[in-house]
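Give me structure tokens for this 167-residue protein.
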Amino acid sequence: FRIELKQNKKVNEIIVSFSKFKSGISSYIYDVELAIEQMKYILNEDEINSLKNIKQNKKEEFFYTLWENRDPSPKTEYNELMEEYFKRIEYANEHFSGWEPGWETDQGMIYILFGPPEEIQRTNPSSQSSSTYQIWNYFTISKRFVFVDQSGFGDFKLESPYIDAGI
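Here you go.
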């Protein structure tokens, strides 16, 4: 902003910069309504039921309460867990979008919940199968997720979440 004050032929000018930052909210969040929807992977049944009954004008307050309860270090200015969660959503939207937003895809969901896999194995279509597979391995937590793209358009669906330990 440029602020100019004129008084008796004297001009005083100040240039002020600011950014939109709301304490207690991730810099990746542009719409609290959407952010609440994107929390579907981590909300428990009670929270989902509460959300269904909450009035529109109380949703933002409810959102803050949800994250306040999940804050790993409440004495800091921002919630590191919230920042990481919505950073993963941003990544999922950039890398896994297809027919739907990346955060709603199977790969997006797994990425949001578990972060980047430690190893990705990819297969190419063969004469026996026209499907492409990706296997995401999380060795540290003993999980493996198999995604298959049967259409050939990069729309990978979670085929078997239970190989070696699953969800």
